[in-house]
Amino acid sequence: MNVSTPLSAIKGVGPKTAEQLHLSGLHTVHDLLYFLPRKHEDYSEVSKISDLTPGKRTINATCESVITKNVRRGMRVTTATLADDSGKVQAVWFNQAYRATQLKDSTQTFFFSGDFDFNYNKYQFTNPSVEKASKIPVQNGRLLPVYRSVKGLKSQVVRKLLAELRPLMAMLPETLPNDIIKKYSLLSLADALTAIHFPTKSEDVANGKRRLAFEELFELLLASQLNKQANAKLRGWSIPFSQATIATFVSELPFDLTPAQKQAAWDILQDLEKEVPMNRLLQGDVGAGKTVVAAAAARQVVAAGFQVAVLAPTEILASQHAKTIANLLEPYGITVALLSGSVTSKQRKPLLSELKEGGVHIIIGTHALLEPAVQFRNLGLVIIDEQHRFGVGQRQKLLSKSDRMPHLLAMTATPIPRSLALTLYGELDISIINQKPAERKPIITKIWSPVSRAQLYAEIDSELENGRQGYVVCRLIDDNPNNESKSVELEYRKLQNSVFGHRRIGLLHGRMKPADKQQVMERFLKHEYDLLVSTTVVEVGVDVPNATTMLIEDADQYGLSQLHQLRGRVGRSSHQSYCYLLTSDTKKPSQRLKEVERSNDGFYLAEVDLKIRGPGEIYGKAQHGALNLQIASLGDTKLIAEVQDAAKRFVSSGADLLQYKQLSRNVEHYQRLTTLN
């Protein structure tokens, strides 16, 4: 037997179990060995019912009675009365109707472990785990691994199969270099998996997890180091720095650049001079002024005789960039064009011809830029805005439209925590704009309860009366009977016919035709609307300096970073701006709402977001695919620093990666997710 052996070959695996394992995505011995516990229940400390105090508690009890009821659509509640020789207590489970079958034998003794607290006017266990007392072996210290119940697969089945595989587990070949294991005091792979699946004490679990987390991060960071090394061998266009060109551009701006903008621009201009293609990420908080920095780089590139492509994820954002960059650069004789899905074929043909001949210096567009018909005379710089919304293949299509590798500037308005930057964007150089223009005032943010809606509307109307404009953001386009969130269509009609009937109101959502969306935004910018009722289509890139109020309906239904992005649509001038987070009910506000209320610092909020939700929504699935991080936390900055040091040592040592077959395969997977190669 080896790691490639089908699970159906293991003793005790019949057709029914084999099918269940298959449905759970577990096919081979390797799959099962790396099917790690979601938690470990400690049954070594057991309380008597009469001694229970609030907190995480374990009892050994029988079930006197159990019943399941449908309390509302989609919700089933199972309630049980548990007893030991000291007393009785109630336990409740939500949408776990199988508990009634599990506990029907009143003569059986079980361990119940979970949160014991005061809920629904009584002290009770809420969603405790349940294990038959007879199934918990005494010899392992009663620290029991609990596995994800995928497709109904029970932890007892997984534990039984892993017990059969324990001898094989002890003989697993090492996947990390021995010198790294020794230097960083890591367990061997065999010992790590054994410690996690068969722990005797909590330290075993911690040490096993540290080893596996180290390996996961090592694969990721080593791939970044190797990519950076490979990128350094590429040859692109050397674009000389012209001090006079940039000095004139900066001096004629209608505002002063912040020190952070100047530093970012200098980083980019220095990169452009090198023959090695620039591979830089420009990250800045909402309203920090990334576009003008990108325009400075574009000014330099065009002055040297090259073309620039700017790729944006939405037509609204592309149009916004085209307008801003044209205002900044057309006075210098630079031709700026917009290419998007709404450009007609009649308009497209001469535009593409001009681009190919070099008559168009800067082209800004959506995915339309990736089409084969889009050709350049000499593409020198590619700028990708909101880069996490594009996949590697999409970036490659644009980068390949040049005889040599063009310089790449990726931009994001989502501040990235340092730990994410070190891992997910390790192959990129990073510039940060962490300052706002001096005249900008911090946005006053406040959480509002729906019972105070009338007072809130009065505050918004006061701002509109003073000549300002505002947004009302809703999650849904149409009414949905299965969703209680506000719909933009209904809210638009309601506000028109009631409290804001005396105001000019616009409607914007993603299902509208691109030309209609553009027209609405242009009318709002010209102050032909006082209030814009919109979905999150306004989340990125919409710049209306006169807009000073933002009302977000059902704010508790959004992620923290999205709330911050939406808030960034106001506060874009010297006027005081306000963001109102209106909750969907009268419950206590969540932690993320409180954090948005108290801080305007996107970089601080990004760190908080990472702790609350993990990296998934921050880095974007389109950017780096699915990261195989079962154990590693991208918030563990201490471990990341250790692993980064180990990856650098490995690369500088010149060691042959191919001698570590599994490690080599995993690193190659991450290398394919690079920005340039």
Please bin the fraction of helical residues: 25-40%
Distance between the termini: 39 Å
Low-confidence stretches: 616-626
* Computed Rg: 29 Å
What is the CATH T-level topology of one domain? Rossmann fold
Report the total helices: 24
Structural class: alpha/beta
CATH class of one domain: Alpha Beta
In words, what does this structure look like?
The structure is a single chain. The protein is α/β, with parallel strands linked by helices and 677 residues long. Among the domains are: 44-135, Nucleic acid-binding proteins (OB fold (Dihydrolipoamide Acetyltransferase, E2P)), CATH 2.40.50.140; 243-273 and 288-412, P-loop containing nucleotide triphosphate hydrolases (Rossmann fold); 444-599, Rossmann fold (3-Layer(aba) Sandwich). Helices cover 38% and strands 19% of the residues. The chain is built from 24 helices and 20 strands. The chain has a seven-stranded parallel beta sheet, with helices on both faces. A six-stranded parallel beta sheet has the order 15-20-19-16-18-17, sandwiched between helices. Strand 10, helix 12 (345-357) and strand 11 form a beta-alpha-beta unit. The two termini are 39 Å apart. The model is unreliable at 616-626 (pLDDT under 50).
Write the layout of secondary structure elements.
Elements: H1 15-23, H2 29-33, E1 39-42, E2 55-72, E3 75-84, E4 87-94, H3 98-102, E5 110-119, E6 122-132, E7 143-146, H4 155-169, H5 178-183, H6 189-197, H7 202-231, H8 243-251, H9 259-273, E8 279-284, H10 290-303, E9 307-311, H11 315-329, E10 336-339, H12 345-357, E11 362-365, E12 379-385, H13 392-399, E13 407-412, H14 418-424, E14 429-433, E15 444-448, H15 453-465, E16 469-473, H16 488-496, E17 505-508, H17 514-525, E18 531-534, E19 547-552, H18 560-567, E20 578-582, H19 591-598, H20 602-613, H21 616-619, H22 621-624, H23 637-653, H24 661-671
Parallel strand pairs: 4-6, 8-13, 8-14, 9-11, 9-12, 10-11, 12-13, 15-20, 16-18, 16-19, 17-18, 19-20
Antiparallel strand pairs: 1-7, 2-3, 2-5, 3-4, 5-6
Helix pairs in contact: 4-6, 6-7, 7-23, 7-24, 8-10, 9-10, 10-11
